[in-house]
Write a structure and sequence with these properties.
Rossmann fold; Arc Repressor Mutant, subunit A; 3 domains; three-stranded antiparallel β-sheet; 12 strands
Length: 368
Amino acid sequence: MKEAPEDLIYQIALLEMMHVGPRVARKIIKCFGSAEAVIKASDSELKEIGDIGLKLIHQRGNEEYFSFAKAQLEFCNNKGASVLSYFSKAYPSRLKQCIDAPQVLYQMGHCNLNSKRMVAIVGTRNCTKYGRDVCAELVEQLEKYDVTIVSGLAYGIDACAHRNAIKNNMYNIGVVAHGLDRIYPSDHKDLANSIVQKGAILTEFPIKTNPDRENFPQRNRIVAGMVDAIVVIESAAKGGSLITARLGNDYNRDVFAVPGTLMSEHSKGCNYLIKSNQAQLFESVADIALSLGWKKPDKELVSVQQELIFDLNDNERKIAVFLGKETKTMDEISVEMKIQISELSTMLLMMELNGVIKQLPGKKYQIA
């Protein structure tokens, strides 16, 4: 598939000409080999693909579409933004798994859209202190797993997720429902500027696109599609976050919801997701780690081991250092430490009882 930068002009122009979904656009581009080849195809070749081909025959000579595409690239070049084709290696690989993934994405900032672990945090615009507290604790716990946070830059839970990601020095992506030439809500301009310092603002919408109501469900599919898991924190019975959750289920993503009290209007959506088995009950990051098969974070392991080793006596500390990340037999430890087996056996037992090491079959030991 052609990935040359100049083909981006033809891809953007083609999307404007056809006014069809990205799935159809990709099918046509793959058929001809590139967007440029589609637009430069003969009339007879275009007629073979039906009504869309006939539309292209009449529209491809209109320079307005190419001027529009060039304006997008010029804006991005001037602002230091990126334009990512679906065929680009930098395009979010998780999003590529979704049948309705955008053909083109516009990115302000520098962030790996294919980082190892990505979690979306979404919720109501009118969040409570409970929601903000849960969000802050969730993000802080996710930092230990080196997670990239994704949300929609809206008021409430979205903004809370972004701000806490910044506070914890985490990579952070805000997906918006308009062009990169504006920020909605306008109150979040400073927040958006902070995000791009270690993250990105991402959209499929070209410049001069307003944040119209119908754009938000489209935005939500990007949020849902580019992550491993989605956590909904507070949502009304008909909140927009429920759309993201539904999309997450459609895309086979792990969806979690934070439960709330029966009396709270802000929790009706979350409680419904759990009740209807559309989301797993979220109590802590351990739920996400278990569901996705994440191992205990290295940062946490190092911290715990350092605390345990600090309390050991000299000989016990030397044994712990000798073991490191390896497994050793009692004989190997005895030879290295120059300690008699009878004395060593007591030391190892105490270290095991204190949770520093664990015994394996064959009288082998390793750090717990």
